[in-house]
Specification:
globular; 26% helix; 29% strand; single chain; Rossmann fold; binds zinc ion; 571 residues; alpha+beta; five-stranded mixed β-sheet; YbaK protein
């Protein structure tokens, strides 16, 4: 491709709305264009990267026997009503009506649609297992779209759905996808970890998230260096540490704590450690009020709470001031577990074992000391509600857990029969008995993967694409386009490298060399061959985008190096 002919428009300034490197660089390099908040289009060079990631995905999916199809992004409400998710999905779903008032949505995911195809076309055990996938545009009406392709409202996703005869079959399908995903992200040049994850709105039993390590990631993973434990913090089980278990139970005592509303205030005022205080959080779940009790030095894991309550995420909200007053009889800041009327109480598993705790008295400006479980308060549900933190004991081996931030680029789920039961996806086995199909589903954020690769591969000057997904492998930069010798040599290099199977960009624009070098760095082409004054001697400059060194080589040496470099980099 000749750059003089290419549709290519860079930005000189950093776009003001972009906060993270991938967002800034994709906009500056003219690879994406914003339409409205959270919705982007791909320009020629950006789209080439998308297609390359898609191609890697296709090759690895096909290698596992999965078959590609393409379903509609518009989905009828009836199928979602059948699975029960029309109601459960919440405001993230783009909903619409047709001219006859029939409900539809723009698909955020496709479990229902794929289950519907399979149930109508597969009836015998001989037709199983099946794994179908598609690469398609998905929609989620994010509350806060941000970070460009990282959290957008429209995005490109690969989603796959496996249908097996039984759980053993699912285990095999899941393992195949785990393996395919590991190969896909490796080929894309990502540094990633596969970690245990929560199943969230998709549902099911086991799940792994593929997380690209990055400081700008919105996800946090916990891992252990002493064993193989690795999980998202949402998912990570926490160990109870109920110290003081053997203390003698002291008599309950009401203490005056004027204006002391936070855990820190109370700890300081009463001179007690934060871990001897119970934090009481009040939530509203539709018409019900729920109190959540957890140790004062812990953070609540909302995912664990949502799972314990068995509700969709969007139904959980903090109780407002009036509600707090109504159920506790006190101002906010003095809520506690005693005398809560008509409130369901969910208690972190560590509290019942702890003695002589302090909590709000449900009286303004008062706290209670020496609360003991069973004697002074009780709970309706006792469950681990703790959010994993750095240094907490590993749930497997009790060594100290480490945390890292990351970008979720893929997730795989063992759905089991969550969709096949309500939607009636059944088959007849060898004995002509009717059996339920066992499902898995597997997603990769294609556009998000593109952003994640940039987060891991960039510098102050721009993107540094790995050759496997670079829009072009080599850029031939001509210093002076009015010099006939330079033009001719560049054309030769262009033709020969193209013949060798590389994708070559030729910067033949009538611009200063400095501008061309800047653009080459910004768009991140892995190899740059500069044709300048020494063209008459058959010499060029060779530079890798990821290195600062510029080497003078003969034309054939430079081409040989470019070919070796690009083909050896897991293309
Ligand atoms: Zn461990």
């Amino acid at each position: 491709m000749k750059m003089s002919k290419m549709y290519f428009h860079t930005l000189r300034e950093n776009p003001s709305e972009a906060e993270i490197p991938s967002h800034i660089l994709l906009l500056r390099a003219g690879m994406i264009r914003k339409l409205v908040s959270g919705i982007y289009g791909f320009m020629p060079m950006g789209f080439r990267v998308i297609r390359k990631i898609e191609q890697i995905v296709r090759e690895e999916m096909d290698a596992k026997g999965a078959q590609e199809i393409l379903m509609s992004a518009i989905q009828p409400a009836e199928l979602w009503q059948e699975s029960g998710r029309w109601y459960a999905y919440g405001p993230e779903m783009f909903r619409l009506k047709d001219r006859n008032e029939r409900d539809f949505c723009l698909g955020p995911t496709h479990e229902e649609i794929f289950t519907d195809i399979i149930r109508s076309e597969i009836s015998s055990h001989k037709q199983l297992p099946v794994n179908l996938y598609q690469i398609q545009t998905k929609y989620r009406d994010e509350k806060r779209p941000r970070f460009g392709l990282m959290r957008s409202r429209e995005f490109i996703m690969k989603d796959a759905y496996s249908f097996d005869k039984d759980w053993e079959g699912l285990d095999k399908s899941y393992e195949d996808m785990y393996d395919a995903y590991s190969r896909i992200f490796t080929r894309c040049g990502l540094e990633f970890r596969a970690v245990e994850a929560d199943t969230g709105a998709i549902g099911g039993s086991d799940s792994h998230e593929f997380t690209a390590l990055s400081e700008v990631g919105e996800g946090v993973i916990a891992y252990c260096e002493q064993c193989d434990f690795a999980a998202t913090t949402e998912r990570a089980a926490c160990v109870d540490e109920p110290f003081g278990e053997n203390e003698t139970e002291l008599p309950l005592e009401e203490v005056f704590t004027p204006g002391k509303k936070t855990i820190d205030d109370v700890a300081e005022f009463l001179n007690i450690p934060k871990n001897k205080i119970i934090k009481t959080l009040l939530f509203k779940v539709e018409d019900e009020v729920v109190a959540v009790l957890i140790r004062g030095d812990r953070e609540l894991n909302e995912t664990k709470l949502i799972n314990a309550l068995g509700i969709p995420e969007h139904l959980l909200e903090f109780a407002d001031e009036n509600t707090v007053k109504e159920v506790t009889g006190a101002d906010t800041g003095f809520a506690g577990p005693r005398r809560l009327i008509g409130v369901r109480v969910i208690i972190d598993s560590e509290l019942p074992k702890m003695k002589n705790m302090t909590a709000g008295a449900n009286i303004t400006d008062y706290h209670l000391k020496n609360l003991n479980y069973g004697r002074d308060y009780e709970g309706d549900i006792i469950v681990d509600l703790k959010l994993m933190a750095e240094g907490y004991p590993c749930p497997k081996c009790h060594a100290e857990v480490k945390l890292a931030r990351g970008i979720e680029v893929g997730q795989i789920f063992k759905l089991g029969t969550k969709y096949s039961v309500p939607m009636g996806a059944v088959y007849t086995d060898e004995n002509m008995e009717e059996k339920i199909m066992v499902m898995g589903c597997y997603g990769i954020g294609v556009s998000r993967t593109m952003a994640a690769v940039i987060e891991q591969n960039h510098d102050d000057n721009g993107i540094i694409w790995p050759p496997s997904i670079a829009p072009y492998h080599v850029i031939v930069t001509i210093v002076n386009t009015r010099d006939q010798q330079q033009m001719e040599l560049a054309e030769t290099i262009y033709a020969e490298l193209t013949k060798a199977g590389l994708e070559v960009l030729m910067d033949d624009r009538d611009e200063r060399a400095g501008v061309k070098f800047k653009d080459a760095d910004l768009i991140g082409i892995p190899v740059r061959i500069t044709v300048g004054k020494k063209a008459s001697e058959g010499k060029v400059e060779y530079k890798l985008r990821k290195e600062s060194e510029i080497i003078e080589l003969t034309t054939s040496e430079a081409m040989e190096r470019a070919i070796t470099f690009c083909f050896s980099s897991k293309m």
